[in-house]
Design goal:
2 copies of one chain form a homodimer.
Chain A (H helix, E strand, L loop, with lengths): L2 H14 L12 H7 L4 H13 L3 E2 L7 E2 L9 H5 L1 H7 L4 E12 L2 H7 L6 E11 L2 E11 H7 L9 H8 L6 E10 L2 H7 L6 E10 L5 E10 L5 E6 L5 E3 L1
Antiparallel strand pairs in A: 1-2, 3-4, 4-5, 5-8, 6-7, 7-8
Helix pairs in contact in A: 1-3, 2-3
Chain A binds a DNA duplex (19 and 19 nucleotides) through helix 3.
Pfam family, one (chains A, B): UTRA
InterPro entries (chains A, B): Bact_HTH_transcr_reg, Chorismate_lyase_/UTRA_dom_sf, Tscrpt_reg_HTH_GntR, UTRA, WH-like_DNA-bd_sf, WH_DNA-bd_sf
Protein name (chains A, B): GntR family transcriptional regulator
DNA sequence: AAGTGGTCTAGACCACGTT
DNA sequence: ACGTGGTCTAGACCACTTT
């Protein structure tokens, strides 16, 4: 739809097809604006997209440089949702609910979800399978408005995210993630079929609505070696920090 | 220097000071352009910066919404460099080199660093300390041009990154990171003073120059519980993917 | 000196969401 | 119907780098 996005895709495609080689130089923005018959600003917007992806690096005075392979450009949803990620890779996601109960919000819940002093949260423990084997246990706590919807989802629904978007018009637009490592606890070991104390990748996540309201927070634990996380960052765009 | 950046900072500051409350609504872009006496496009660029940070969320028809607390906006360097991160937090970074040797590039080196079939790499093993205790072991492999500089660095230099920038004019402009969990091996256990098999956060990293040339790649292993990684993503800007 | 990217102007039109 | 953000135009000037 947007012209600048089409141009970005066109340039990305030209790089993929080898028309522009790695390390070679793109035409100047003014030349490109004539070639595509758009205003220079539109070209800048297009190239800006590719710069953020790390495909291009710009230099003044000299000419801008083609840097690397274009990335598949993973979407936000693909990352946030286990099922959508798996499907996009041609793997088979599955999952079942171990428990789903309403609890009074703990102080931690109230902080993460910005809840008033008296509030309930819907707590779900799920085990996620990839191609038939358990790789992750997920402990999620939903704020009441979302929990009321989640409660109605059948326990073997492959994608909670997709269900919420389709039937309750609840979508996530931003998330904050924290990663660390931890030893498997007793319940982890039982659910994931690993030994106690074996290494797990821990992923804490808080997901927000478009309005910035925290909708859920979750602690997921992955069996080491099954899955890993990839992040790009650059001088232009950095979404990472240590804590 | 750039007007749009000043405006972004001004709005960020206004949010921090509570002038705009969380969940409240910003003036329209046209109003802001009058207030700051700039063209509308400049305002868009400024607000775009805040949207990517997740501080603002925009909606059409209604008015755009102030979403959350402004983040400290960690810089790329702060994340890439252990020493710079630690210093910025008022903690004491230290490190010493366990070994530093030239080796023939392995097939893996050649792939990660895009080297020709015959090439050397400079391999360094370092232990990093935070406030006096060992928390990370780092195994880095530099391409020869960088290795030649690294070789001259004294073994207790706190920040290799800062040294390279200052004396050899070598700067990193982009990096790709991969995170997973793994058990401590024999050497890890000895260097980090933990038991074999205890969980470590594994961080593989490839760093690139402005021109997209891979300069080094590294596998760092952190003692679980000492440090964790935080990432933001959103529908607008997503730098994460599973692998 | 010439060319480039980075920034900015002062508009325009459209699609969308709310009223 | 109206106001909003999203996109785009057709320029301009400056800072920087290389020639």
């Amino acid at each position: 739809m947007a012209r600048y996005h089409d141009i970005a895709e066109a340039v990305r495609g030209a790089i993929t097809r080898g028309f522009y080689e790695r390390g070679s130089q793109l035409p100047s923005e003014r030349e490109l604006s004539e070639e595509f018959d758009v205003a220079p600003g539109t070209i800048r917007q297009a190239l800006g997209e590719l710069e953020t992806e790390g495909v291009l690096a710009s230099r003044r005075g000299s000419r801008r440089t083609v840097v690397g392979e274009p990335r598949p450009a993973a979407t936000f949803e693909e990352f946030r949702s286990f099922a959508q990620w798996a499907s996009s890779r041609g793997r088979v996601p599955a999952g079942h609910v171990i428990s789903g109960v309403w609890q009074d919000a703990s102080p931690l819940d109230r902080e993460e979800l910005r809840l008033p002093t008296a509030a309930r949260v819907f707590c779900v423990v799920r085990v996620r399978l990839l191609d038939g084997s358990a790789i992750m246990v997920e402990r999620t706590r939903y704020r009441d408005s979302v929990g009321a919807e989640v409660e109605q989802i059948s326990s073997d629904c492959p994608s909670v995210t997709a269900w919420l978007a389709a039937t309750a018009n609840i979508t996530f637009s931003r998330a904050e993630h924290q990663f660390s490592a931890c030893p498997a606890g007793a319940e982890d070991a039982r659910l994931l079929n690993v030994r106690r104390g074996s290494p797990l990748l821990m992923h804490k996540r808080v997901s927000f609505s478009r309005d910035g309201l925290p909708l859920e927070w979750s602690v997921d634990r992955y069996v080491a070696g099954t899955i890993s996380l990839v992040v790009d960052n650059s001088l232009n765009a950095n979404a990472l920090r240590w804590a």
